[in-house]
Amino acid sequence: MTDHAKIEKGGTRPIGRIAAYWTVTIILAISITLSGIGQLLRYGGNVDLVTHIGFPLYVTNILGAWKLLGVIAIVMPEFPRLKEWAYSGIFFLMTGAALSHMFAHDYGDGGFNLLLPLFYAALSIASWALRPKSRKL
């Protein structure tokens, strides 16, 4: 049986889809990890981002910890149910950030405070949709 026939029958996965999954997932993991570390350390503009829209400063500890735990769940092998929760958590976290900034009229330069979290939400959807069968329920 040729490789093409195996792919059509579902015997193996196309290498392009696996490469796309890992590319998107690594970009998502690095981005969310850096964001989580920045929030835990209150580095750079993280303090201004949350206090400017009315959240208390301790929220950075909660968000930073959730982000790091979510990344760990997504990249580690096995635990497909935990991965489902992590993907949904990152999606809701990022869309909630965009909506919070929108409702506070804090769009940032060129809408950055809306676009960046929505980009991360899109990455989480793409990573979830492209994940291999071994990472699904």
Task: Round the mean pLDDT to the nearest integer and report it.
Answer: 90
Order of secondary-structure elements: HHHHHH
Helical residues, percent = over 70%
> Radius of gyration, rounded?
17 Å
> How would you sum up the global shape?
elongated
- Write down how many β-strands occur, each being a DSSP E stretch of 2 or more residues: 0
End-to-end span in angstroms? Answer: 29 Å
How many DSSP H or I helices?
A: 6
Largest sheet: none
Characterise this structure.
The chain is mainly alpha-helical. 73% of the residues lie in helices and 0% in strands. The protein starts with a helix and ends in a 7-residue tail after the last helix. The model has no long low-confidence stretch (mean pLDDT 90).
Strands, helices and their partners?
Layout: H1 3-9, H2 15-40, H3 46-52, H4 59-75, H5 80-103, H6 112-130
Features:
73% helix, 137 residues, mainly alpha, single chain
Short description:
The chain is mostly helical and 137 residues long. Helices cover 73% and strands 0% of the residues.
